[in-house]
Each structure stands twice: as structure tokens, then as C-alpha cells.
Description:
Helices cover 24% and strands 45% of the residues. It is α+β, with helices and mostly antiparallel strands. The chain has a single domain (2-138), classed as Alpha-D-Glucose-1,6-Bisphosphate, Chain A, domain 4, CATH 3.30.530.20.
Amino acid sequence: MQRIEITHDFALPVERVYAFLSEHENLGPLFGARISRVRDGDSSRNGTGSVRSLKVGPLPAFEETVTRAVTDELVEYRITKGSPLKDHRGEMRFAPKGSGSTLTYVIEFGAAVPLVDVLVKAGLERNVRKGLRTVDARA
Length: 139
């Protein structure tokens, strides 16, 4: 199993950062993927049950489903269709920090094919760190 854990501070308040990062279509730069909405959530657009499709380069698209969402606090999701990764889980925890906010982002996964998870981890961690640096300007 691979684990990525990133803590990032933002100048913007938690409400703005959560609103931006919970919107599926805004996540493309973080994942290095083209993202499209498959389904809205059960009780809110980006909430529990919402599904996004991700397409990374020439690879086949896969889907992630939000399994739990608490406004301004938490987004949890899993890959639910079409990926060589297994036991994937993502968790974004948001908290106020002074006049800004902080995000603790954990992604865990394995792979059915040896070394695929190691390669995915390197690229994914690099993209997420780079993408998070742009959130204050984009949100």
C-alpha cells in the first residue's frame, strides 16, 4: 500500500477552500487529469454519492465516488470503476487556521500490478502539491 499525506495552508477561509476543492471540475490540476461529472450527490451537487470521471493521458477513464462529505470539514472518496489501483481511499480534511485554513489530504492505494502504485504515487503527489499552490489564486 502507498500513502500520500499532504498538509497545506491557505490564505483563504475554510469555506472558500472547501467550496473550491469539493467541486469536481476544479480538481483537474491536482490530479493531472481531465475531469467530468458523472452524477450529482444524493442531497447536494458534490456530496455523498456524487461521481466524477477522470482521464489521465492515454489511459482509460476511471470513476471516483464521494463516500462522505461534511460541508467545510471533510470529503472522502474511493475509486469505484475502471482503475488498476486497488483499495483506493482519499480524504480531504479542512480546518480553520487563523484567518485562513489548512487542508490535510491523505490518499492511500495499492495496485494489482507490481510497481504501478509506486509510479502513481510519485506523479500524483507531485501534481497534488503543485495544484494546491494555485488554490488561493483560483478559489
